[in-house]
Amino acid sequence: MGRVLADLGVGHVFGVVGSGNFVMTNALRAGGVPFTAARHEGGAASMADAYSRMSGRVGVLSVHQGCGLTNAVTGIGEAAKSRTPMIVLTADAPAAALRSNFRIDQSALATSVGAVSERVHGPGTVVADVTRAFRTAVTQRRTVVLNVAIDVAAAPAEVAGPIAIAVETPHFRPDAASAARLADAIRTSARPVFVAGRGGRGAGPEIAALAEAAGALVATSAVANGLFAGNPFSLGISGGFSSPTTAELISDADLIVGWGCALNMWTMRHGRLIGDGTVVAQVDVDVDAIGAHRGVDLGVIGDCASTAADVLALLAQDSPPTGYRTPAVAERIATSARWQDVPVTAEPDTGRVDPRALTIALDEILPADRIVSIDSGNFMGYPSTHLSVPDEFGFCFTQAFQSIGLGLGTAIGAAFAQPSRIPVLGTGDGGFLMAIAELETAVRLALPLVVVVYNDSAYGAEVHHFGNADMTTVTFPEVDIAAIARGHGATGVTVTGLDDLDAVRRWVETLSSPEPSGPLVIDAKITDDGGAWWLAEAFAGH
């Protein structure tokens, strides 16, 4: 199994090793696949998920049978719901071990959270079984749980020579009629907006070229943030994270084209970003995705890169339209489309820092070549909207399962996916403390990880959502997170005002030193924002 997965090209394995997966994990290592030991299977699952998303290679999660798998199931659910191509290599109880303490229905558990369950049936089928699981992960963009009974894993298998099986992501060109209809819709549009999602992350240049020819503005869903970084006609994120200018320009569009984007309630603000009479088109490789969240006027089955290229060819003979790319619109985008450009009203000095001012300052202090990961919670709009990223591989957004506590593992996996970039995590105090075991992992690995803890001593989303109810179940005493970080061997800094960020500047200066800097944890004691603007969208979707 280890040789087959290595030969197929998996990139990195993360896990917690027990007796059931000890030999399998070492077999992967012997095949040349790097391994990172986590402190909890849940953290390892998030590491593998983020690595797969941000590297473009299949990551592997290795876990023990039974409880090892159940410990990882929330992270597996996030990966599955996000259509992350990932392999979960899990031991399983032998078929004859009916009384095993570890026995559960692992296949049912996997499918219950949206993953695909596969199995290695025996030594004679190991190549076919493992290759099938890998092919499903890559070609269908699925998280595959590969069950291996420990007695099967212990059996010898003869595999002659390297496994030379090419598995590539398929490309689907649209049919000519569909491409022509989309070209016609673009020709007749005066104010087109293209919104790229997860499925468009590999087609940024093609979508941007078509947008230029069509006079279209470009935006992304949250998961594709950064895809059009540097484009002067980029609106940033469409949806609950949109600035007022971005929301207005999208809602004034007469054509919205979703490129690998579901155009769901988050991205379209429950439909409020779609104006009366606006034509809505959707491009996707998955026929079931077309119109799954809202009715569309035009659906095109095809991959985003091929579709954009084909439509551009159809428009090649047309006179270039101005479309939405007028000087006035360009000026509005340049001056107010980014949240960083929206003035922040100074809050009274309460001994706590404004989270907007904090994040704007960190955007200037931290190296621009970064990879930002976002945990879930009341805070998450601040790093999502106020920290710039260099491209689509600079932003990892794990919100498909809406679980807090996945951020620290996510940031570690993202760091391995893009090792030349500074990893940055935005998290709340609740999510950070839930995942605290993986801080030791980051310290052990000497990762130059910046952890920004937006600390309101509460599960802030619930505090704001439930208003004047009894909040003692979701509020907590002050915790000195910086001291906890120092106890783990990280640099810990408490921030109650912008002057405290001098310590962050000094840490950044150490990045050029030959000695590893290790993680920096910023315990930001933040002011109450009165309820983040994106929360209304989140709770409306419950």
UniProtKB/TrEMBL annotation:
GO terms for molecular function: acetolactate synthase activity; flavin adenine dinucleotide binding; magnesium ion binding; thiamine pyrophosphate binding. Residues 3-99 form the Thiamine pyrophosphate enzyme N-terminal TPP-binding domain. Residues 180-308 form the Thiamine pyrophosphate enzyme central domain. Pathway: Amino-acid biosynthesis; L-valine biosynthesis; L-valine from pyruvate: step 1/4; Amino-acid biosynthesis; L-isoleucine biosynthesis; L-isoleucine from 2-oxobutanoate: step 1/4. One of its GO terms (biological process) is isoleucine biosynthetic process. It comes from the Bacteria. Residues 376-507 form the Thiamine pyrophosphate enzyme TPP-binding domain. The keyword Nucleus does not apply. Keywords: Amino-acid biosynthesis, Branched-chain amino acid biosynthesis, FAD, Flavoprotein, Thiamine pyrophosphate. One of its GO terms (cellular component) is acetolactate synthase complex. It catalyses: 2 pyruvate + H(+) = (2S)-2-acetolactate + CO2. It is an enzyme of class 2 (transferase). Its EC number is 2.2.1.6. Belongs to the TPP enzyme family. This is acetolactate synthase.
